[in-house]
Structure prediction request, 678 residues.
Amino acid sequence: MPTSRIVTRFDKVKAEGRAALVSYLMAGDPDLETSYQALCALRDNGADLIELGAPFTDPMADGPAIQKAALRALANKTTLNDVLALAKRFREEDQETPLILMGYANPVHTTGYEEFAAAAADAGIDGTILVDLPPEEDQPIRDAYAEHELSVIRLATPTTNEARMAKVAEGASGFLYYVAVAGVTGAGSADPEDIRAGVEMAQRVSGLPVCVGFGIKTGEQAAAMAKIADGVVVGSAFVEQARLATVSKTPQIIAEKMGELALELSTALKGGVPT
Amino acid sequence: MDLRNTWDQWPDENGRFGEFGGRYVAETLMPLILDLEKEYRAAKKDPAFKAQMDDLWAHYVGRPSPLYFAERLTEHFGGAKIYLKRDELNHTGAHKINNCLGQVLLAMRMGKTRIIAETGAGQHGVATATVCARFGLKCVVFMGETDVERQKPNVFRMRLLGAEIVPVSSGTGTLKDAMNEALRDWVTNVENTFYCIGTAAGPHPYPELVRDFQSVIGKEARAQILEREGCLPDAVMACIGGGSNAIGLFHPFIEDESVRMIGVEASGHGIETGQHAAALNGGAPGILHGNKTYLLQTDDGQIIDAHSISAGLDYPGIGPEHSFLRDTGRAEYLTCTDSEALEAFQLCTRLEGIIPALEPSHALARVGDVIDTLDKDGLLILNMCGRGDKDVFSVAEALGVAM
Prediction:
């Protein structure tokens, strides 16, 4: 089995002695052309992995920023197939940056797990985070993904004790997404010291890189979190940049704004001064 | 396969009713629902828990509710005898309190001090606020903005009872969004908060425990009809939104294979218009709010807003056990439009002097059709799951009457 893009990328980041920047954008917000340019801008400004949000009408684990982004993408009639087409377009010119599809189970269930896995692999997707498919319910995607070498990326949280972590780790691949605070995306952030033990336990039990997310918005916060984790996930802050820039209506300006944030974050993770 | 001896085994240890149900929640909530299941198993075996429930049911709720022979409705349809299970006489005016009491007692066993709930029409919100007032617990009710506007009396009632009402404007501001918002609150306040779900849906063990608490309806009805008529009914009927009153009536009859179980979904302006709330008759299996079940959804898996004149049926999903009972053929599911429900509302009011809620009016509207399929000496029980006082304003508006 060839080494996955995710493994290769974490190896590279580790060799550079830093944490990875995992950035998120909602596909189709406000339209697919903007999302494409934003993907390139994020990559060009230091995003190591990119989560591509697949919009869903009822995002029960997301805060207002991502909820509204999903509704904007849906108002623009973005489908799961469109998200895969976007990934494919990006993948034609970038064969290295890992792309993680992040969303909810129902659109994937409706597509059919097998059919989705084949289409996602064909589009150059490297793994998925499906928020409402906990280990108890994700056997169908584990089966479907196995032959396509897609990673099943799971969530761990401060409510995950060691026994539960073993369950979370079993069958997980790529990396673990450690949710820093019990809550929804974009809400308050955690003190890295409060979750240090939890992240260490996740690393030890899973043997996977552990990326911390939820509530991280600035280079300063990212640099602080990077001290205890293998990667830092920033989502709502990018979505908020997209929204603020939407008034200007041009994909270039939106992508530029998101690129600026990526540069601030990636510079901070490299130990530099945020611009 | 003979399912006769297996009906009562569901859900299985994974919370499944056949392929439906399950635990489709974010990881943050998994430890909570696993704990809840453990606590529920312990409570079920605890005679003190049962004794407390029985006492509150008898003296606070007013159980058992009567089984009433609806003589004039029976004459009107000219067939089988129609009995009404009078759960609208419960304290707070609907069946909802049966479940709220059980869940709030469980919450207290678990040491939780803050109860959250979602509500559409406001009946579950009022019942939850009532029980929280009774036990001195903090209560927060999430309600879609649209529903806050159209259910003002219930909003005021909840405030009188000391509950905090959170109007939900996210999404489309209806019951499903209220449920999303309650789930978001729950993941944020996992330590002290208990989510009191109003219907037999959501992640396991909710569909099971709500069913068990509501089964008091069917247990009483079964004993009452046996005492009164000396035999089982030919059919039991109830309206279905999420399906808690229906599953509560059906479940104690589930192994009595001679008893037909008939649910009635709200078809709003008609299924063909796309504006309806009939998940079983007009939806497809999918995953939402913690369970796999029939849902109103687009071809690419986005959830479609439901429509019904009855805010209590205005939900795009249905409890997973109903999906299972439908696919196995054990229960039948009919539909009723807004206008048919309005007619049945008026018919029952005039013939029996009972003003039904718009929700059971949907079931009443199909009684004639069901009677036509039964012998003249047959027996039918319909669950009168709520009273219509809350609906008089919207009925007046629908009938074009100025109040």
